[in-house]
Amino acid sequence: WDFCSKWPVFEEERRVRANDREYNEKFQYASNCIMTSKYNIITFLPVNLFEQFQEVANTYFLFLLILQLIPQISSLSWFTTIVPLALVLSITAVKDATDDYFRHKSDNQVNNRQSQVLIRGSLQNEKWMNVRVGDIIKLENKQFVAADLLLLSSTEPHGLCYIETAELDGETNMKVRQSVSVTSELGDPNNLASFDGEVVCEPPNNKLDRFCGTLYWRDKKYPLTNQNMLLRGCVLRNTEACYGLVIFAGPDTKLMQNSGRTKFKRTSIDRLMNTLVLWIFGFLVCMGVILAVGNAVWEREVGSRFQSYLPWDPPVDNFLFSAFLSFWSYVIILNTVVPISLYVSVEVIRLGHSYFINWDQKMFCSQCNTAAEARTTTLNEELGQVEYIFSDKTGTLTQNIMSFNKCSINGQPYAKGEVRIDFSPFNPLADPDFCFYDDKLLESVKVGDAHSQEFFRLLSLCHTVMSEEKSEGELVYKAQSPDEGALVTAARNFGFVFRSRTPGTITTTEMGRTVTYSLLAILDFNNIRKRMSVIVRSPEGRIRLYCKGADTVLLERLHHCNQELTAVTSDHLNEYAADGLRTLALAYRDLSEDEWESWSESHSVADKATDCREDRLAAVYEQIEQDMMLLGATAIEDKLQEGVPETIAVLSLANIKIWVLTGDKQETAVNIGYSCKMLTDDMTEVFIIGGHTVQSVRQELRSACSSSYPQVSGTNDRAVTDQRWREGGRDGGTGREFALVINGHSLAHALEADMESEFVSTACACKAVICCRVTPLQKAQVVELIKKHKKAVTLAIGDGANDISMIKSAHIGVGISGQEGIQAVLASDYSFSQFRFLQRLLLVHGRWSYLRMCRFLCYFFYKNFAFTMVHFWFGFFCGFSAQTVYDQYFITLYNIVYTSLPVLAMGIFDQDVPDQRSLEYPKLYEPGQLNLLFNKREFFICIAQGIYSSVVLFFVPYAILSDATQSTGVPLADYQTFAVTTATALVIVVSVQIALDTGFWTVFNHVFVWGSLASYFTIMFALNSQILFRIFPNQFHFVGSAQSTLLQPVVWLTIALATAICIVPVLAFRFLKLDLKPQLSDTAEAGRPRVSEGRLGARGGSRRSGYAFAHQEGFGELITSGKNMRLSSLNISSLTLELCLPHSLHQHTTTHNVHFFSIFL
């Protein structure tokens, strides 16, 4: 969809020719202009009004306004409706205009960014909005990528460039991209100006990790993959410059495709209110029909007798037409059962709740100077009803920062102590940011312990990290995964410093001595092998294989003499895993020259194989990685954001289910699950769903379901499922707990229509659910699945562009703001900088917002039915003539002045318990999830109370004043005395009622409640004063009637009696309920905190692997090929000489002072 042209363009494939705008324009591809705004100056008023009148309530009030303009049926002035309607429309229009202004501002800022475009052989500055598909763009270091580009060439060797994708996936690690070899030499603008290659590729889509296309140039074709693409939103890093061909622009880019369509989100209370408004309108029609029928009967039986001196007003000529007009008159009079001030008040309350979130200092992060932000004002009460949270992992639960935490060397454990080690006296090359606390390990290295030194020697050699030495001793490591960076940094601080590498050597500084090893081979990592190895030759000529990997695969490849050490190290690994640490086992093997030569020949054959190359290499790797000697194990902490385990534990106690949806691989996701305390070793079973076919996935799901429901195996008992899910995935009979881990390829089958119910059923039986290797689209599909089957309120939280579709699909979207990209924040409804703030957002602000809104609505419907139904009863005593009980000024001011501010104060400030108690008693959150505080039942109770009050307020004054007289003997049974008495009693009753309903009194509550009561008397006396009568004699007829009425003791006795009859039953009911059936909120203040600390404690000792390694395969081959090396001009010749040497002569090469500048991932 072209947001600028507003015309949809559908493609089956895309054809792009470089430097040929005329050819490309015939396909009508979208320009690079983006437009996320909805209005412009011309369309704002009509479009906004059209959108607002799509609201049932606004259309209803417009219809009433039209009726009030007809004199024959209106007994109220038009201003009683047009003033509040205009107020509502204006407030909403100003809010929409403000939101759209900021969208325009953001769009203009992005569209007017400058980019260098190659036009007619020269680079010219162009605005982003003027860039077109087929243009060639030059990017410089630290610049944002303007569109989705095919990388053509780069200043780095072999057409490599490095990008940061934080805007796309929230990850701050660098990633490498490489141009097609045939275009990598086109670095000069003159050469690029003559480039006329044509790209045929897939149409625009939202798959961030996939691209498929072909480059046709000079009668040859070259395959294109995602590794050749630079996506809009990325930032060029550590690369002087590069050139790219625009493939997708503007709304067709993957960043914008992932933004998805903005959905207008409504709360469940909004949807319920729309239903209730329709019901009330039906009730209003019924009352109008009843009174119209009464009018017809009265006019026929009684009114006909007065025709001679009280004829019908034209055009009425019979009782039926009189009844017809009476119906519409009563529709106007009784419309206040749903006053428009309800919608104004709701918006004001929501705005107040949003400001409370923005102002909450306990949700302010001083570290990144970021406050929480409510980016919408329409969803606050929905925060108090969340049942499912869908969370990203990287950048949301974790900081994506790894720290070397513990280790085991030759059976000796080393862990954190009390005092941080100062490495600077021992090692001038130490990283000052590295933290370790067990000085026994440093002493072991210092005294020359062979096992400790070999341990760190392995860490300094067995990796694919690149090193950049900016100045002497100032090392910067560029690791393709934070795991490797942490391990190499640990070795650096303990005296084994990785300095540099070439395709055939690794140079280290060991205990102050420079050593260069010949790199004979890298046995690369992949997800199946779960390990990587290097084979190096020391300067002394010793050949050794160093290996690190998962304990589950490495321990079984050890020499049999390691049994005792393996048992001890396994215990240490078990302890580390129980602490939620990421573990690796380390081993080595000495190779003879003959063994190396024989294996090297087998490796060379497998490497050159044209078929099944990967399998052949794996078999060769397996052959050499045997009979190894165990060195020890490492334990790395994947640093969680502060307070994540505690937050998850508290939210779980609030009956909120948390699912983790991540693009990470299974081991990493599971390890974080244990760190977060979502998974525990006390769980009965963790189901792993990893099938690649529909049949295998279905079988695994059914097996998991039968294990968790042995008593209902083979059935589809949804009631049992729902009950188990409410119990948090716990087997009610045995206390068993389960968890589910499912891979992306298996999830694709599980989300199919014929299997989705089985997937939901199985997931509902589990306490924790982790979906790994999922695409952005699958994240959104999982959210939609739960919305469809569970009918529950969902919340999605993430920090990258790959989370946007999930954030927009959920009822509530939360973006994590911080050092990562802001795309998720821009698409979110709420944002803050730390996952732990979610606890306060839901349990405090969300719960309070729901409570306040429910109390507000209950009271609002009550007071308006009490007010309006008096007219209904009066109709039976006024000949059904549509005469009002109150004067029109009271009718106008009742909802605007007399009762608006007290209910607003309650809706904005009310609390049942303080914020700290809300956190200590998570079970207080459950009424919102069960929708207990405002539902159809509560609504009928409210209107029943309102109708009861209206009966009392009408018939008590009517009965008493019918026979009452003044002290002078003058009867009090006149219309104005009755109207003043009823109106005064009404205002006092509803004021007392809101005083009873208010649970938390502030200065505002006192001022508004008692001030509104005082304003009623002030205004009433003013409207009945001599002054207004002299100025407007035709408007104010009843001079002094209010004063004379309220001077009568019987009137005050009547008011007091009516108030008592209305309020005493309410008080009695509440006292009985508090005594016989108290709620948790009633007892929370007196009790002790209910948050269980037990679930935050250590887990049991059952054996499991803590292995998790965020590494990717392929980098070993890239290193040994030399493609990622940048060489100083002084060393090109020496490196060329080295590359010409056979591996057997590498031991004789000298150390090269080579500088590298490369980043991975």
Detailed description of the structure:
With 1161 residues, the protein is of the alpha+beta class. It folds into 5 domains: 135 residues, Calcium-transporting ATPase, cytoplasmic transduction domain A, CATH 2.70.150.10; 78 residues; 292 residues, no CATH class; 212 residues, 3-Layer(aba) Sandwich (Rossmann fold), CATH 3.40.50.1000; 238 residues, Calcium-transporting ATPase, cytoplasmic domain N (3-Layer(aba) Sandwich). Helices cover 44% and strands 17% of the residues. It is built from 40 helices and 33 strands. The strands form 6 sheets. Strands 14-33-32-31-15-27-30-29-28 form a 9-stranded mixed beta sheet, sandwiched between helices. α4 runs parallel beside α28, α16 runs antiparallel to α17 and α33 runs antiparallel to α34. The longest helix is centred in the C-terminal third of the chain and has 39 residues. The N terminus and C terminus are likely disordered.
What layout of secondary structure does this protein have?
Layout: E1 14-17, H1 21-25, H2 44-52, H3 56-68, H4 79-111, E2 114-119, E3 122-127, E4 136-140, E5 148-154, E6 160-164, H5 166-169, E7 174-178, H6 189-193, E8 198-201, E9 213-217, E10 220-224, E11 229-230, E12 235-237, E13 241-248, H7 254-259, H8 268-301, H9 319-333, H10 341-359, E14 373-374, E15 386-391, E16 398-409, E17 412-414, H11 439-446, H12 450-461, E18 466-471, E19 474-478, H13 482-493, E20 496-502, E21 505-510, E22 513-523, E23 531-537, E24 543-549, H14 551-554, H15 563-578, E25 582-591, H16 593-607, H17 613-624, E26 629-640, H18 644-653, E27 657-661, H19 666-675, E28 685-689, H20 694-708, H21 718-726, E29 738-743, H22 744-750, H23 756-764, E30 768-772, H24 776-790, E31 793-798, H25 804-809, E32 812-816, H26 823-827, E33 830-832, H27 837-875, H28 888-898, H29 900-909, H30 915-920, H31 926-929, H32 936-963, H33 975-997, H34 1003-1023, H35 1026-1031, H36 1041-1046, H37 1049-1076, H38 1080-1083, H39 1115-1121, H40 1132-1140
Parallel strand pairs: 15-27, 15-31, 27-30, 28-29, 29-30, 31-32, 32-33
Antiparallel strand pairs: 1-8, 2-3, 2-4, 4-13, 5-11, 5-13, 6-7, 6-12, 8-9, 9-10, 14-33, 16-17, 16-26, 18-19, 20-21, 21-22, 22-23, 23-24, 24-25, 25-26
Catalytic activity: ATP + H2O + phospholipidSide 1 = ADP + phosphate + phospholipidSide 2
Protein name: Phospholipid-transporting ATPase
Subcellular location: Endomembrane system; Membrane
